[in-house]
Amino acid sequence: xxxxxxxxxxxxxxxxxxxxSRFVPRVSTPLIQIIIGALTTLLxxxxxxxxxxxxxxxxxxxxxxxxxxxxxxxxxLLNTLGLSLSLAIGLALAxxxxxxxxxxxxxxxxxxxxxxxxxxxLGPTDAVAVSSLSHEASLSPRQLGILEGESLFNDASGIIGxxxxxxTAVTGTLSVDHAAEQFLISFVGGTAVGIVVGLIANWVFETxxxxxxxxxxxxxxxxxxxxxxVYLGAQDLAHVSGVLAVVAAGLTVRFDRTGIGPxxxxxxxxxxxxxxxxxxxxxxxxxxxxxMQLPQAMSTSWDNPGVSNVLLLGIIILTSAVVTGMRFLWxxxxxxxxxxxxxxxxxxxxxxxxxxxxxxxxxxAKGTITLSLMFTIPYVLGNxxxxxxxxxLIFIAAGVIIITLLLANFLLPxxxxxxxxxxxxxxxxxxxxxRRTVEELTGxxxxxxxxxxxxxxxxxxxxxxxxxxxxxxxxxxxxxxxxIEAVHWEKDYVxxxxxxxxxxxxxxxxxxxxxxxxxxxxxxxxxxxxxxxxSSAAPTRRTVSxxxxxxxxxxxxxTILARRGGGxxxxxxxxxxxxxxYAAMRSIQVDAMEYVIDRLYEEMGRxxxxxxxxxxxxLDYRRAEASLRNRPNVSDSAEAIMQTxxxxxxxxxxxxxxxxxxFEAGTINRTQIRQLRRNVxxxxxxxxxxx
Length: 691
What we know:
By secondary structure, this protein is mostly helical. It has three domains: 368 residues, Na+/H+ antiporter like fold (Up-down Bundle), CATH 1.20.1530; 115 residues; 134 residues, no CATH class. Helix content is 78%, strand content 0%. The protein contains 25 helices and no strands. It is a multi-pass membrane protein. It holds the Pfam family Na_H_Exchanger.
């Protein structure tokens, strides 16, 4: 029961951190989760339970490494493979040795093997911890590729080094020849097992998909089961590195990129969403556990009379300095020795390259893997004695993690400020794709599908307009003021028309006065609701206004129903159908748009609003008016809806074809094509669900 309570506390803390992180955007989510975990231990229901250390390797490391390897950009990984391996293997080994000797020299009570284990655990970096700062920091594709590749490979090297160090600490002996032999067997065997299992998984999933046996549920369950199967099979059956097997399998598996069609897209999207939730939950759980572990480890070390608190804090600062200093020196030497890809010559260290070295140093924060490894330290040695300094080693590792996260949180945005260049580039690419899609759709217009295709083209045009405004092509505040003013003009027109109909009992067009009154009142409800939501008043006043508006709308609706029912009972007015009311509202809305367009033309000759804003709004109203006029009547609505849905599907196919052409032409890279395709797949699934 205590374990169940602990799991519920962890899950609840992860959920709470996801909400709090939205309100504290400048503090990384891992730091928030550590604080929440520490505060959770103060709750009276918090149990005094602990999870088995070996479970961390299976429950956390296996799925996280698989997902990281599966999602990494393979092309970027190959381009930066040498630099990534230099950091993942060379720097990890150098960090293990430097930290081990430093701690053993300053604090001889820590055995050298245990200090090496701490140094090995501090080798792996946590790219997930730094990714939460992406809205504040901007990393170049090369820097991001190096960090991701390093994070992938140094997990394996750090874990293997940690396991050998712990084995030495537990048994008290270490044979270099035997260790080298076991390392080679574990490395090669783990990689081979992962590749073989990945190839088998590809065949199984692709075959089941081609035969139509795959369902969303079975696909997701089998994919979630795969990393655990690979890790346990390699570790317990083949007696090789389960970590390397999981990494190799993640790099080999590719079944989610095969097949076309809405069902495949829906399955891929659901699987991606499930893995995203699982990844956040696992990473969050580890940092929550770190926060939960801190009070106990701190109190144990702090209250121990044989441990100097000042020395303990000094060891944390020393270890952080050694880890950060070694990384900066290694990255600087790597940049100095690396040759330019074009000239094949070594370059001098300019100010920009020194800043790049600092970014790569600060971007190597420690996190999930480090803490998970430290939790796997056994409680007893081979002779039955307690493992020396276990709590203190975990406390030191936790302190280093917090310091590196703080450095990444506050220094990385200063060293690499986010100018939104990548977002702007992606937005411009999306606009180009949408424009080419509209051009292709325009060439497919026929007298039979004119209305449906124009409706789809109008939706694409609106998307282009929104993207332009996001890029800053226009002043959003001034344009927003004009849009709100235009809505007020619509309200004035509809209100005047309603009052005129009530006063004279004469309706415009072929509508009856009763029908026009009801249509105008409903239109006013919609317009007033829009204005209440766009009000710039204080939140409290806006909420009160919205509540009052809701009551007035309900009161007006009840009045309409009472008047309609009374008229039917007295046989003074016929029963009004919703279709006729909808048609009358559409007619009034078209007239109101014409009125607003005339007012906008008048405003263009004045100096109140900018000319380009007036012209932009005129185009928007023209497109909306054309969309309303082209909407089908009630009699042929079903056929027109089917034509519109078919036009949507055609537009998505055109958009995907244009994206593929741009990728083959080298205009966009693999990361961009993946994101663009995912957006289209989401819209495809949404269109299918509407059917």
